[in-house]
Amino acid sequence: MSGAVGQGGTGAPVGREGASAPVGRNGATGADSGAVSGVPVPGGPVLVASDLDRTLIYSAAALALTMPDARAPRLLCVEVHESRPLSYLTETAARLLTDLADAAVFVPATTRTRKQYQRISLPGPQPAYAICANGGHLLVDGVTDRDWHASVQARLAEECAPLDEVREHLLTTADPVWVRKHRTAEDLFAYLVVERELLPEEWVKELAAWAGPRGWTVSLQGRKIYAVPKPLTKSAALREVARRTGARLTLAAGDSLLDADLLRAADRGWRPGHGELADDGWRAPNVTALPERGVLAGERIVREFLGAARRGSAPGLVP
Fold first, then answer.
1. What's the pLDDT band for 40 if we cut at 50, 70, 90?
2. pTM
3. CATH 3.40.50.1000 for domain 44-154+233-312
């Protein structure tokens, strides 16, 4: 069943909108370099922004290990929840991700809340920047940038129906027969956990039609239905990180409708052969559709990131 029922944001690739602070290993910023906002800094870093769930890391149900058991890749657990292993990547992907930290500024970009993100222990150094709550929170060295969050809240208040209105609509229209949980995330957006096999396809389309005029979009991902304000985007936060680091090249990956704006905003992007975007055949000129599915797609994505980052860091590259 197709889940692409809304529309993400748009914009020019952020690698062409860079800006102003010098950056150390993995993105640590220093004093203002004086570079002009909106122009990539010559010699600036490569910026890599990636969705996490079902793009880089995978639950046991999403691994898609279709090969014979003896040929299955070795896995590394990167998330434990309530004393149980929850998310994995391949050991090869873990090694590549560690190498990526030396070649680029790596920025996790997730719809997860800050608490959910902080359960994840990725290989390599802690990212200097992380995008959480679909762009609602920008973490700098693990701490929320309060000015960024306040600017997001102000825009949502101006352009979108309030969260309470959306929550009430979900509560009154979603059938308890197929809804397992009603949740809100960071007081920014709402989502349902559902029994996918019982979920009526028409209900999701009707929700999207109701939400659109109110400034909200809808995304169906696995067993979750997200209702998210349209201005709440990963790409907006990515542009801010690109501005701060002076990035001259941006790379991105994602699998869902909520990643479409992130992919469009990057200079180059990749999507796996599974997920909302793949199911709809979604494409963009700067995005490569990979054939791999499941955890092997995550490994391929990190390999593509590392190769592109190293080429992007080569002497003589013209930003």
1. low
2. 0.84
3. yes
